[in-house]
Amino acid sequence: MALKGIGIDMDGGDATVEGGATIRLVYGVERFLKERRDVNVVLYGNEREIRDAFGGRFPDGVEVVGSVDNGSRGKGRVDGTSLGYLFRDAEQGKIEGIYTAGDTSQVARKSTSIRVKGLGMPTLVADFPSTCGKFVVSDVGFTDGSSKEKYYSKAVDKWAKTMFNQGLVASVYARSLCGKDRLTWGTLSIGIEEHKGSDADKALDELVRERIKGDLGYLVNYVGKVEPRVCLEGKADVVLANGYIGNLVLKMGEASVGLIGRKIKDRAYSLPLWRQFILKYVAGGSIKMIRDGVLSELGIESGSSALGLGYKAVLVKDHGEFSCESAYHSISRLARCDDSLLGDKLLDSVGKFIIE
Prior knowledge:
The chain is α/β, with parallel strands linked by helices. Helices cover about 45% and strands about 15% of the residues.
């Protein structure tokens, strides 16, 4: 079933980017509302700024929940920021989807109230194109290499268990994305040799190999360590990684796509005019059309976002420097999610495999 309502953080995002976060979101919200009148949308943020951004009035049929100054408290014990009210309403079941471009660390810290017990640490899942379709990286932002454990061996063990649990949660999304019941897992590494990879990667590799000897083996085919090149060749559906490494992979991938797009454009416009004429009018399309066609074939929309799973609501996390176009695609992506990605449903699906 579809999510019964989505909340949009109108304050999140880099205010230093031209236009500010609220103004940049207006295009995406208005375009989405025109196309999806069936979705219940709630806007969270500074009421005056939202009203001004929409030309002096709120969008028809849309509820607005006003925030107060950052660092202040709202009614009762609620954090007075837009994120605070978003997570409050998600905890109370008023919304089942959350869009934000806020700082990832702030999102992780303030979202503890809507975490679902029994799933471990939430995960921020991103999907990437491959020669065979798509694959997902199990975490691109919620975990890192830090630990409060006193002994290093215990820290390594905890990291491995966290990445394993995040892989299980990410697999629920990957099944619908890849259209498979039995997924192929791989551990992201710098090489497949036994001695390569971090201690946490090696511990994770051993953990997965042990776990798939049981019932998990019916759902997961594990191919061991995988390099980024192999992932792009479609050799794994779910790539296990900690959030720090996953985030670097995500940002490098996005930068590479942008660079290739600009190089194609620069190369095409450097051609003699008569060749540009042939390309546009004889070959059947403009340079931009060709570039956009390639990106569409790869399944890359304008901009990108990641799914936060393991909560009472589905969370879509956009970049702080999001564009008007990417905001629209990210909000639309959230609306396409169904309730199988809600924390309670995830617990039903993979809870018995989770390691506490």
